[in-house]
Write a structure and sequence with these properties.
Order of helices and strands: HHH
Helix content: over 70%
Strand content: under 5%
CATH class of one domain: Mainly Alpha
Structural class: mainly alpha
Largest sheet: none
Radius of gyration: 19 Å
CATH architecture of one domain: Up-down Bundle
Number of helices: 3
Number of strands: 0
Length: 84
């Protein structure tokens, strides 16, 4: 019985961890939109705006990747089963 509870709680935790992918998606879309606006206003600053945007998107994407890794660990490795 305890094993089923731990597995169920791990599945719920993995699902909640995958919600972390929503934030980076919204943030990156917003950043790209603002970068397009900035390039449209000042085309000569394209290189600076684009490189800063790509660096920011890469940093923001790590949040989603961390959530994905936590979900994978909870679903397949499941360190809590050994505590039973």
């Amino acid at each position: 019985m305890e094993r089923a509870i731990v597995l169920g709680a791990s599945a719920i935790g993995a699902g909640l961890a995958m919600i972390a992918g929503i934030g980076p998606g919204i943030g990156e879309g917003y950043a790209v939109g603002k970068a397009c606006e900035a390039i449209g206003r000042q085309p000569e600053s394209k290189g600076t705006v684009q490189s800063t945007m790509i660096l920011g998107c890469a940093i923001a994407e790590t949040t989603g990747i961390y959530g994905f890794i936590v979900a994978i660990i909870l679903m397949f490795v499941n360190p809590f089963i050994g505590m039973l």
